[in-house]
């Protein structure tokens, strides 16, 4: 089930909301949690019920490992580390089997002229996100900062449907206390208004902006065999903007939906295309993934505590793992490697003492991010090289003005301006007031988005 669908907006969401607060009013608190957990599993199964046993098995495994780790405090550190290693290994193997098995087989076949048959496994929905969420839980249990003794609570933590498919990546310690607050058991009108406001902004981003940019990127990456200078830059910029408005739109909708249940999800985007350095970009882009990579990969590898060379290695290794997490393909590996190298280059540049004007820092960062997204989007290396060749093909500028090109350039220019200059949704939420002005604004966003439901499209990160 998609957030941008009639069945979700007009049936599933209102039914789960009303039933949850009615149960909280007339039944013990655990009943409301049980309802929300069951509804979340139904939401997940709507897309593919075949994946339901997988997520339930993953939940059971991690709940059991978390309990074992939590109760092993009095045992030797070696046993606790062994339990943590077993838990993380189980999650990584599950993710690796479904997401990377065919990639490995393809490369083995290519290197050794083998003929191993591909498994052709369907990627379970949201597996990357619920796997990372549960790895974080196991590590927190090992560190003593997360303990969960209720299976209902744990299932709800993992499956809470606003974040289940594409994040944000959550921490147990920041989520479950919110479900247990007495005040959260009743409808809070202010949260309902703010939540619906943020949801409508996200819906507009996805349906009106991202889905309008999508055909431009698709034409350039997947259809055209060669691109002129203008076509190539339109293609890369369209995808750069599509990805931002699509994924940040999902995050806004997730935050808005959760707020109606009085749950505050962490912010996942903070105007990343306003970043003035690559480090600044990763403080603003997919912020919960950046937090995960830092806390559970970079720091455990040694962070910056073991000298400069090791720090640089840890940075590259962390972003390389981040690239691999995003997808099984050399293009994702290159994308992650580029961002890791960029982190090292920024630190080396900082040692020169040379300070660039703020505008040039922004321009270099944006151009680098835009170039790297080409690898992220391209299905093959050939597709990526096709776009890059066009971006520097000054012999074929391709500036033949017609209505199609003018509309394309205006759309890219308008959305670029919004991404770079306008306030983001979280900044707008801070200024939100439940009055007639904002009510009209919400109504306009909602009605316009609903009328634009000419086709229900998936979110880009559903396939990661």
Automatic annotation (TrEMBL):
Bilayer topology: Multi-pass membrane protein
- Spans through the membrane: 6-23, 53-70, 82-101, 121-139, 151-170, 312-338, 358-376, 397-418, 438-462
Query: In which organism is this protein found?
Result: Paenibacillus puldeungensis
Q: What's the domain of life for this entry?
A: Bacteria
This protein's UniProt keywords: Acyltransferase, Cell membrane, Membrane, Transferase, Transmembrane, Transmembrane helix
Q: Which Pfam families match?
A: MBOAT
Q: Where in the cell is it found?
A: Cell membrane
- The protein's name is MBOAT family O-acyltransferase
Q: Which family does it belong to?
A: Belongs to the membrane-bound acyltransferase family.
């Amino acid at each position: 089930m998609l957030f941008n669908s009639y069945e979700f907006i007009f049936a599933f969401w209102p039914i789960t909301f009303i039933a949850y607060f009615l149960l909280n009013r007339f039944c013990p608190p655990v009943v409301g949690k049980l309802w929300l957990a069951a509804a979340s599993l139904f939401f997940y199964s709507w897309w593919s019920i075949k994946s339901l046993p997988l997520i339930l098995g993953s939940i059971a495994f991690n709940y059991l490992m978390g309990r074992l780790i939590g109760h092993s405090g009095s045992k030797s550190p070696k046993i606790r580390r062994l339990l943590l290693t077993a838990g993380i290994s189980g999650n990584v193997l599950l993710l690796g089997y479904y997401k990377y098995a065919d990639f490995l087989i393809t490369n083995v076949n290519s290197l050794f002229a083998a003929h191993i048959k591909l498994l052709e496994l369907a990627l379970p929905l949201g597996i990357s996100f619920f796997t990372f969420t549960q790895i974080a839980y196991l590590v927190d249990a090992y560190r003593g900062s997360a303990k969960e003794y209720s299976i209902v609570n744990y299932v709800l933590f993992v499956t809470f449907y606003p974040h289940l498919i594409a994040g944000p990546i959550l921490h147990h310690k920041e989520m479950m206390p919110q479900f247990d607050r007495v005040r959260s058991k009743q409808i809070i009108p202010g949260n309902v208004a703010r939540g619906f406001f943020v949801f409508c902004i996200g819906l507009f981003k996805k349906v009106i902006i991202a889905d309008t940019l999508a055909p431009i990127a698709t034409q350039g990456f997947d259809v055209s065999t060669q691109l002129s200078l203008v076509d190539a830059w339109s293609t890369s910029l369209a995808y750069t903007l599509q990805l931002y408005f699509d994924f940040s739109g999902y995050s806004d909708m997730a935050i808005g939906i959760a707020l109606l249940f009085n749950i505050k999800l962490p912010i996942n985007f903070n105007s990343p295309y306003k970043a003035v350095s690559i480090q600044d970009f990763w403080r603003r882009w997919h912020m919960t993934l950046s937090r995960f990579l830092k806390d559970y990969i970079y720091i455990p590898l040694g962070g910056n505590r073991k000298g400069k060379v090791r720090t640089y290695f840890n940075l590259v290794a962390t972003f390389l793992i981040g690239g691999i997490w995003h997808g099984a393909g050399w293009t994702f590996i290159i994308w992650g490697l580029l961002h890791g190298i960029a982190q090292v280059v920024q630190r080396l540049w900082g040692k020169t003492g040379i300070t660039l004007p703020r505008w040039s820092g922004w321009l270099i960062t944006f151009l680098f991010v835009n170039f790297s997204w080409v690898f992220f989007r391209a299905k093959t290396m050939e597709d990526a090289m096709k776009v890059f060749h066009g971006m520097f093909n000054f012999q074929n500028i391709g500036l033949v003005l017609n209505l199609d090109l003018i509309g394309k350039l205006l759309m890219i220019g308008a959305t670029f301006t919004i991404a770079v200059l306008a306030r983001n949704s979280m900044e707008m939420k801070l200024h939100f007031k439940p009055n007639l002005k904002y009510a009209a604004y919400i109504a306009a966003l909602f009605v316009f988005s609903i009328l634009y439901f000419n086709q229900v499209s998936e979110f880009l990160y559903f396939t990661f």
